[in-house]
Amino acid sequence: MENYELNVDQIFSSNMILPAGKSFKIAGVGVSGKTVKVDLDGTIKRTVINRRGEWSVRFSPIIDTSRAFEVNIQDGIQHLTLENVRFGRVILVAGQSNIGFRMAHDQDFKSEKENFKGQNIFYYNAPQPSFIYQNGKVNVYQSKETHWHQLKVSNLEHMSAIAYYAAQKLVEEDPGMPVGVVCCTRDGTFASTWISESTLRENQQLLEEVVLPFEDRLKAATDADFESEIKDYRERVHRHNRRMYNFMKDNPTVSLGMAISVVGQAPWPPPVTPDSYLRPGSLFKAMILKIKNYTFNQAVWYQGESNVKNYGIYDQLLFSLINDWRDAFQDYSLPFYVMQLPKYADVPRNSWAKIRNQQLKVTQVLDSVHLVSIADTGEVYNPHPVAKRDVGRRLGRILAGNGYSDTPILEEVTRNDGDTIFKFKFVNQIQTRQGCFIEGLVNHQWQAVPGEVNQDTIRIQFPKGTTEARYGYSNTPILTLFNEQGDPVAPFLVDLTSGKLI
Q: Which SUPFAM superfamilies did the record assign (predicted)?
């Protein structure tokens, strides 16, 4: 039996945004056996704190987005008040560094700050935990408390850049609707860190390719080995940072991407150690389960950069992640928006192209999972593009739901009298730039073949014996097909015999 002081989960705080028109929970901890009363504008819910010291109450949907509410919580002795609680659209943005990339580093930060207008935007940055290995056990340590913030010019630098531009677009589409963003990210993470350990172990391939290699590495090394590897890694990082500093000092006008192409990437990933946050399942337990009682309208996932070594199973990882999160949030139809990776060159050949194809594949298998391709953006030699405005506003437009729910994707492939017809979704009239070409694989050679556009289809006569077709299938694709809104057709690789993505 656990006993705590009466409190709410950290994500519930003053200034929070709860989803309008959707039932929601308020949850926390307290003394086991006590009754908690939660009063939200005269609607009262009561519950008894369970043996684990946890409590939660569920409220029916509230549609009033025009005013602020107050939430009062008490157990007969202690009393909590949450102020300025509003209802609106709540977006979860999650993944690794590119979605967590803050406005302070965005190339347009200065102009956005200078032209900042009071906006109906609120944000919550989920705390990033540390892991401590002591006496043969890994413990989670969260160094600071966080809370909801109303976006102001003074705190703009702390918000995710992509999330800011997306929220900005959402507010433009519906000025009376408050937008709340929950940012749950960690730099350099593998998809497996965001999936429950039980799910990883239940999937034989994920167990063999993800979990067991990590565990075998831990068994094969001593504490002295870990200390030596960490020391060596820190020295390599220090040497890299020093080279980068000296290069930028000597070449102040050179872009960061060009500097990285000369100096090289910072060493990554760090060594495998017992307290690594890259442990399979670590962030699902330490971050996702910390916000499991919150309710979201939509979730955005932007990750894949760190999975170049096991890109072949990325579809299984992403499939498992979405199902795990929907289960954790008890929201089995929660819409997910998967950001397809941008362009980047300094990775093994076609590894990012393969991950993009796997991302596309998952959106065609799971219901309410949408693709937002940004493969026409990015920097060839910088894995962290500093221009986030176009990406964020494209995302915001799609989240708003006033047009297409996805960027254009391949829907089906049919063959008829020597012709191959590619049909696309989320486009009425395909727009071409620099011509219309799709590559075909014949006799183990790829050949670009021109196609004929007819509204949402492309007709091509491939050479006899062509077995596969691809478009934009490169780490740094040159995309030539777009919909009417300027969104790119997502790159793909397809088997022409089965019509299925490879």
A: SGNH hydrolase
